[in-house]
Input
Amino acid sequence: TQLLEQSPQFLSIQEGENLTVYCNSSSVFSSLQWYRQEPGEGPVLLVTVVTGGEVKKLKRLTFQFGDARKDSSLHITAAQPGDTGLYLCAGADTYNNNDMRFGAGTRLTVKP
Amino acid sequence: EAQVTQNPRYLITVTGKKLTVTCSQNMNHEYMSWYRQDPGLGLRQIYYSMNVEVTDKGDVPEGYKVSRKEKRNFPLILESPSPNQTSLYFCASRQGIGLGYNEQFFGPGTRLTVL
Output
């Protein structure tokens, strides 16, 4: 079983601050995804990273896939209240893309 | 609008009373799955289906059944619900399997309470 550990579990910051959340595993993944889930809704895909060392930017969000494809980070610059939500990472098994594992998530609160 | 719908959104029931949660997608996706989400445990897959009449167990299938008679629908059945099945349930679909098809589209969730 591939376990994905996300840290921190909870994060509360003021508007305008920067933050980084992490997704770590001892397993290698063929791809890794980040989702954001808002209260009362299902997760929505933010990004998929595939190549070790890959960096993708989505406005104020920067996603990085570790060189060994075992870990990933999400950095948010100048956080806004609209960034509040549960951030989930999900890794696809190297040998079976059908098998995707989710971390427990980081719950982010951005206060105005 | 491309979407995954689930019904009901909220359900309170009693132990042993059979229930069905419906799931439907309008994207012609082949792959559908059910997850439960519990605090601290993340999303855990219950069952998945790679196409019509093809279903398989996920990580936590005990106490659940599914069927896939049509491509768009994938109902989750609890024959005899128990309190440990109290959870938030999500249905998801994606175009297929393989690296280029990993984006999952999730429904809005069904919050189930079993008393």
About this structure: Residues 7 and 23 of chain B are 7 Å apart (CA to CA). The longest strand of chain B covers residues 42-51. The interface with chain A takes residues 4, 31, 35, 40-45, 48, 50, 59, 90, 92, 97-99, 101-109 of chain B (CB under 8 Å). DSSP finds no helices and eleven strands in chain B.
